[in-house]
Write a structure and sequence with these properties.
single chain, 252 residues, alpha/beta, 8-stranded parallel β-barrel, 8 strands, globular, binds 1,3-dihydroxyacetonephosphate
Length: 252
Amino acid sequence: MSRIPIIAGNWKMHKTAAEAVAFVREVKGKAEIAGVESVICAPFTALPALAEALKGTTLKLGAQNLHFADQGAYTGEISGAMLKELGVHYVIIGHSERRQFFAETDEMVNKKVHAAFRHGLVPIVCVGELLEEREAGKTRDVVRRQTEAAFAGLSAEQAAQVVVAYEPVWAIGTGRASTAEDANEVIGYIRGVIGGLFGADAAARVRIQYGGSVKPETVPDFMRQPEIDGALVGGASLEPASYIRLVEGAKP
Ligand code: 13P
């Protein structure tokens, strides 16, 4: 089963709408490479302008969060319907920064995954262990717990459509990436967990990215690993030239 490589930039809290449009002007055409799916996950405020700027390109638009309710008294929150209306395709759910700084729990992550599917959005679900969990030999336990919780209540067909991003928390923004071999091992384990829950077909189809200090020059190392289907990239996705090289590095 061949899985289409997916490179997603997670801009986090970077770029105004005008800056986002200027970025697209630079990457248009160049970051559109046959056989690689390229995605930009931008702040909410840049999404309408980006949707317009990306028209006629193969780049896909992603958000970085959504609320789990369809609507209601949740001041400051954004629903799946609001994102869908803008032309958003992907939504990052359960990023470690949201778990750490905004108290997102496994249960909330699961509710958000269901909300994404209700609105026709594809979740990019983040899992990954803290440094102390890795050092205590708990990496597998942590990614199992997070994966099982995030996927609870999905159909096998939905499970196969989810993109998982394995992002060890100690590797994010630190310049200290996981080795490709270690990432491959954990990602293979996550695929096994999904297989145990939803069967071999879903496990073979689900795409699992690595994230954490990925640079253009390291993308090919990760992509050579059989279990790794792409990357979720923060810092190195912000500069147009760097983003283009990330996508090129995933060329099959
Ligand atoms: P960096 O690529 O900046 O380490 O960030 C990774 C990340 O958190 C992507 O979601």
